[in-house]
Amino acid sequence: MFHVVHAKSLKAITFIAILAFFCAWFLMTQYSSTAALFASTDQVDAAIYHGPSDKNRVALTFNITWGDERAKPIVDFLKKEGITATFFMTGEWAEKHPDLVSEMVKDGHDIGSLGYMYKSYVDMKPGEMRSDLQRADGVFAKLNVEDVHFFRPPNGHLSKEMLDTIQDTGYQTIHWSLNSQDWKNPGEASILAELEETSNGDILLLHASDSAQQTLDVMPDILDMLEKKELVPVTLSALLDDMTLDTKEVH
């Protein structure tokens, strides 16, 4: 049996095939460009979202952008438990809370930068990014906070241009592997459920701003969960101690 394909049908089939090819190509390039923005510890020109998986360590990281009430109790709790973590903060917040920042440093916590103002770097030009980082650096310098070489992009927004600019300033961009969603105040059980898959090398995102009203209450359960998994919470510096970071001044 022979099938006859008319010219119009052939053109339609050809058009559909070409369209399908370009759609597949577009999706593949979009996926590749997005995936290239993330890396584990073996690639320093991308955002690190995970530490080494061969050691039973994880990093507790807290973002702070505003408020006076929630951060101090979390710092006190960690001190009581003998736990060190990493606090990412805006220069604007640090400027208003110098004593608490000094206490964090004294207790052995890492300090990371969210820039001076909590504004998406994806919407900025490279010069604006450098200016915002430099302003935050000035605050940390006045507070005698040394070795601030971790940067976390506000809202977690990433772009290739942003990553290149941040690397040029000497910072290492840090993302996360598990997001507790604690800022939504969904309930302690929900926060804990978001972290139940925690394993070696994970970077956990939590918040210490006043909007995160349930974080402190769930911290004992988080530590119990980590203990049952035989995971040790450490600072980012300790988690990534096998990674070489070349630091430069922001110009």
TrEMBL record:
<keyword id="KW-0812">Transmembrane</keyword>
<dbReference type="GO" id="GO:0016810">
    <property type="term" value="F:hydrolase activity, acting on carbon-nitrogen (but not peptide) bonds"/>
</dbReference>
<dbReference type="Pfam" id="PF01522">
    <property type="entry name" value="Polysacc_deac_1"/>
</dbReference>
<keyword id="KW-1133">Transmembrane helix</keyword>
<protein>
    <submittedName>
        <fullName>Polysaccharide deacetylase family sporulation protein PdaB</fullName>
    </submittedName>
</protein>
<dbReference type="InterPro" id="IPR011330">
    <property type="entry name" value="Glyco_hydro/deAcase_b/a-brl"/>
</dbReference>
<dbReference type="GO" id="GO:0005975">
    <property type="term" value="P:carbohydrate metabolic process"/>
</dbReference>
<dbReference type="GO" id="GO:0016020">
    <property type="term" value="C:membrane"/>
</dbReference>
<dbReference type="InterPro" id="IPR050248">
    <property type="entry name" value="Polysacc_deacetylase_ArnD"/>
</dbReference>
<dbReference type="InterPro" id="IPR002509">
    <property type="entry name" value="NODB_dom"/>
</dbReference>
<keyword id="KW-0472">Membrane</keyword>
<feature type="transmembrane region" description="Helical">
    <location>
        <begin position="12"/>
        <end position="28"/>
    </location>
</feature>
<feature type="domain" description="NodB homology">
    <location>
        <begin position="56"/>
        <end position="237"/>
    </location>
</feature>
